[in-house]
């Protein structure tokens, strides 16, 4: 038995023997090719880091594994480097854990890892270490990934919820909910389909664009639970409230249409390539300008404001009314990342 | 519905809403308590690293989740820091990914995370970032972990398979196969039981003990596939052969008994707290002495030698014969880590 792209993953591909070796050398290593990935070593030695290290980790269990605009491979890269980017860091290295189900098509694995490698390449990060486990049929939904990212903080960067003040503005870098909606449509469980692409992408150009702007308080990529959930975390951490202006929040027609049909709120749907930033009142216009000058920020908008007279997330509706966005208990769209 | 230790994990515990927040704050955070784990941040900011960074990552899918001498929580810590330690590094930080199956007992999760936290504490590493995903019932065997470890290389450390030379000695720090055998006995699938404990432990005291010894070429913790598999990786990388001396290899009576009964070779069984080291002929005796002076190394032994006249792993048996240890294709004991 040899590992070939036509075959299926078997339990023995995860047991440390030569079949695992072959899988790693034939399928995984070429897709992640870089001089720092030494599959003979238990641990990767990295050059000295210039700047303070920043580290983050994420698990990925999205269903379906491939969706319009991305797949679990590219999503894992984007999701991880975005967590570094919104912390004010420049991502440098990734590690990769694979949990693969017995019976998974090797050709599909190769495709997903290739996509992961391309996403890493195009954002200038390298995969330096990895681990593969194979689970018995029925004990793993195809493939799960875990990626850990390491970067370094740009000098002088100091972002955090603790810096947020009443009167600060809320910015988003583009239309919200595209990823959640695209993945949901790809499941075809509601009999809906569309041409919407996930927004899965690196947000590094967006976060770098705001570098050096004094009034940047905090950035976050609104993934699981969407914009409203990040807003709630902010309220909880600061004791402040957030007003969001429905009219100002960019939502694509397709996302709006799906939400209207199914009764979803786009504010709770995941993005995987957007940034929410809290910026001082005085610097908000120049932050917006910097974003709008980028292709990824052409639909950026100032969508709300930090309030001291309440501690909820309140939506000012298009009709001028106010509606409290309740904190999410259970996501209507599980497994979107 | 509130998160309590009596309850079961539900899908909503992984969806980014307040139930996930509660799970993290009530169950996970206290067990990993350290000032650097800030659950409000997407990424952890670390102090500047003194020395070159070393990074490794591992997935853990062991069955059963709890076994004599350890559990998946402590095993994840040991497995990850050991990969750093055998690279000549001092482990500093861990990140943690949880993949939990819907219906998993929260009290059990709390117990496993507590064990993980204690193992980290006792080896001086801190968990600085994490991520939790919940999978639908039947799509995850209880719980899978992925841990990434960061450490720094001790100055002057230069280990690697490339340094190995004919005539070098092979050392092991203690009896082999305890972990694999203990986990197998815990499954009770063969109707066997015993008092054997897994050797799951940090090997850092062992690797630090060899620091500064010129003749250290390479170290590895023989986990999946055991001593024979590490030996084969070494042969493949160097083109050299390895002779192992059956008589010299420490194997506990219980492991030997189980192997005799079931027809296993202990050389393929996993350890999770042992080191295999390749040391120059002249420094091998002092390396052995350093190990034997430690509680974890009291059964350390010189068990073989690097050869240039073949490129296989050859066992000199107790009866003076020679037997090629074939390279493992499929592990008789899957999911031991």
UniProtKB/TrEMBL annotation, chains A, B:
Pfam families linked: AIRS, AIRS_C
Transmembrane segments: none
Domain PurM-like C-terminal intervals: 165-310
Residue ranges annotated for the PurM-like N-terminal domain, each copy included: 54-152
Protein's GO biological process: protein maturation
UniProt-listed NCBIfam families: hypE
Family: Belongs to the HypE family.
Record's protein name: Hydrogenase expression/formation protein HypE
Natural source organism: Vreelandella zhuhanensis
């Amino acid at each position: 038995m040899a590992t070939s792209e036509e075959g299926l993953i078997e339990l023995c591909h995860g047991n440390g023997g030569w079949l695992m070796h072959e899988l790693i050398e034939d399928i995984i290593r070429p897709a992640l090719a870089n001089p720092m990935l030494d599959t003979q070593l238990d641990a990767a030695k990295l050059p000295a880091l210039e700047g303070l290290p920043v580290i983050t980790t994420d698990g990925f269990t999205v269903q379906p594994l491939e969706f319009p605009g991305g797949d679990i491979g590219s999503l894992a890269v984007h999701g991880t480097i975005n967590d570094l980017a919104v912390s004010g860091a420049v991502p440098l290295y990734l590690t990769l854990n694979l949990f693969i189900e017995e019976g998974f098509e090797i050709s599909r694995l190769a495709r997903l890892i290739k996509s992961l490698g391309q996403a890493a390449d195009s954002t200038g990060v390298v995969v330096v270490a990895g681990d593969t486990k194979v689970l018995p049929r029925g004990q793993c939904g195809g493939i799960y990934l875990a990626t850990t990212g390491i970067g370094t903080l740009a000098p002088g960067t100091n972002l955090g919820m603790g810096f947020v003040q009443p009167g600060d503005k809320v910015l988003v870098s583009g239309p919200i909910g595209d990823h959640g909606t695209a993945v949901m449509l790809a499941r075809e469980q509601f009999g809906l389909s569309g041409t919407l692409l996930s927004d899965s992408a690196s947000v590094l150009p967006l976060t770098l664009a705001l570098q050096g702007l004094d009034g940047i308080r905090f950035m976050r990529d609104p993934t699981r639970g969407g914009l409203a959930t990040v807003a709630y975390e902010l309220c909880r951490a600061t004791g402040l409230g957030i007003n969001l202006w429905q009219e100002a929040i960019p939502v694509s027609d397709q996302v709006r249409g799906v939400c209207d049909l199914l009764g979803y709120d786009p504010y709770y749907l995941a993005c995987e390539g957007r940034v929410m930033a809290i910026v001082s009142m005085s610097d908000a216009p120049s932050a917006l300008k910097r974003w709008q000058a980028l292709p990824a920020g052409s639909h950026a908008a100032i969508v709300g404001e930090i309030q001291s007279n309440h501690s909820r997330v309140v939506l000012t509706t298009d009709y001028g009314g106010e509606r409290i966005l309740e904190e999410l208990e259970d996501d209507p769209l599980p497994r979107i990342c």
